[in-house]
Amino acid sequence: MLKIKNLHASVEDKAILRGIDLEVKPGEVHAIMGPNGSGKSTLASVVAGKEEYEVDKGEISLDGEDIEELSAEERAHKGVFMSFQYPVEIPGVSVTNFMKTAINETRKAKGLDDMPANEMLKMIREKSELLEIDRKFLSRSLNEGFSGGEKKRNEIFQMAMLEPKLAILDETDSGLDIDALRIVANGVNKLKSKDNAVIVITHYQRLLDYIVPDYVHVLYDGRIVKSGTKELAHELEEKGYDWIKEEVNA
Amino acid sequence: MDLKDKLVSSFMAFENTVDIDAPVHDVRSEAIKTFEDEGFPSKRDEAWKYTSLNSVLKHDYSVFPKQENAIEYSDVKKYFIHDIDTYKIVFIDGKYSSHLSQTTHDGIDVCLMSAALSKPKYRLIIENYFNKAATKDGLSSLNTAFSQEGAYIHIPKNKLVEKPIQIIHFSTGNESALMLQPRNLIVVDENSHVQIIERHQSLTENPVLTNSVTEIFTNKRAIVDYYKIQNDKQSASLIDNTFIKQKRESHASVHTFSFGGQLTRNNLNFYQNGERIDSTLKGVTIIGDKQHVDHNTLVHHIEPNCESHQDYKGIFGDKSTGVFNGKVVVDKIAQKTNAFQANNNILLSDKASINTKPQLEIFADDVKCSHGCTIGQLDDSAMFYMRSRGIPEKEAKALLMFAFSNNVLDSVKIPEIKQRITKLIANKLGVSIGFDL
Ligand SMILES: Nc1ncnc2c1ncn2[C@@H]1O[C@H](COP(=O)(O)OP(=O)(O)O)[C@@H](O)[C@H]1O
Ligand SMILES: [Mg+2]
User: Fold this and answer.
1) Do the strands A223-228 and A215-220 form a parallel or antiparallel pair, or are they unpaired?
2) Domains, chain A, with CATH or none
3) At which of B213, B248, B273 does a domain end?
4) What pLDDT score was predicted for residue A250?
5) What is the best residue among A41, A54, A84 to mutate for testing ligand 1's pocket, by most ligand atoms within 8 Å of CB?
């Protein structure tokens, strides 16, 4: 589904990603771990189409189609979704209004009519129940004054609404207490199918107890320096990243 | 001959067309002298530093209306708020159009200035109120000198006027260039409530310059809500001089929506002559091209325990320019005044500009006054966030801008106006999303 080949990306001439190779197939869950500042969020943003980052080299394709030249919204229309590490506050736009606009613009891009209002309401009700989100919450301005946990839960609510093909969850677990973590993980698992894929970016093993990865990659200094199965995540939890850094630097 | 000379020398001819015995004759004669002395403001005047009238004064305007022109309602329906029942006072090229209007004398007077100026039964009101709020600056005096037509609204006490009143000025372009001087007088007596919508609309590309004066008097506990829709053609310019004198416990609000026209200058002045008065001044400006909108506001707190709320939002694209000059004066005896002022702006291009200047003159010591102005760009991270959810760039921009101006719409009390403004904003931003959620 997603193929990344020798991806190099920079911002303001500062190289951040320095040769990433990654292949994600339908039905798979990949975890990306690594120390702070290694480029995890940058990788997620580059795949989602953030223009601030310059792709200097390499390829990104989705279902065989090159997507580097596509805008963020075109990638979203093709089923790419990123849950933000730091969701942005948008005063004056309610969660509901935002979601309706996102869904209908995506439908428009596919040549479909707007989703009928009652269908939309039903979907909003179902998905907010899935993530145990209070109805009142949906009429509030997007992310404005939300707690860290509320923001993350809201990200997964949006994912549930948009039903993406490829979801990249960037540190969705940070800021969540254990109950919220379970709700969010449960939400993600309910949305999993053999046709879609998830990339989970995390620091901690604990989310991976709920969303079990098929592969675990370690990103360090803009490269994937180690890949393995879920056991690698346990090893990292126990031993930290220093041994990886030593291995790389040796 | 320049426009000033032309106006001064046309005054005699104008006076011959109107009733010279009317009590306002002396007021007009006085006013033309003031205009002769003062002339048009120039950039040397502090209050006009950022707005030059040169480009709009250069046309050879026909300076007072001569002939009656007709237009079909179906051709101009879209400029009316037509989905609710309203009174209408409509003018075409400065002349009253009975065909398009719906006036009344049933318990309230919603009619014409020309009638009020000439008929004895209005004499007392005219004597008490006409030209009693307007300042004697050059532009207002010019309007006073040529004052003849406009809306006359008198609401006696204890009337809740359910139907809003629309005042609409059309110009047909039958004159190659036209200058209009509409004059409105609105007197609202004790405990009464009225809502007014005002619009100036040119129907062709011929230059139009409107120099309008509106005087509003709100007596004890009266409520006036006034909405100005400024979305005129690129060839039309407007100088709007509005003066509101409030008596105790009255509430007056003016919402100004500026989306079009070549040059728009709003001189909006509130005078609080009593205690527990509330004044609200709000505006949304969204312009592009080389359009220019200047909001020049004054709130004069003369008595204690009053409030004023100002909130102006501006979005400027292309080479457009904006000015906000908000003056708040709190007299020494006006203790316990609450005066708030905010002016927030977004510049969409590096060729667009805004000059914003709060001017607080506070002579009382026990007051709460705040002011704040911001100038920013659209937030890139918000843009990416929205686009990553599938909202295209243009729509994402529009949604952000709408959200930015939204709280000004919150205080619009007529739902149909809110809808209309929302549509105009969407239109202005070039998107078809209805922000109606
Ligand atoms: N927009 C940016 N401008 C400048 N530097 C950036 C930007 N985005 C990321 N970086 C830098 O790139 C490196 C990787 O950042 P990031 O992708 O956020 O790492 P991670 O998510 O793994 O913690 C860091 O050194 C960070 O400071
Ligand atoms: Mg990160």
Assistant:
1) antiparallel
2) 2-249 (3.40.50.300)
3) B273
4) 76
5) A41
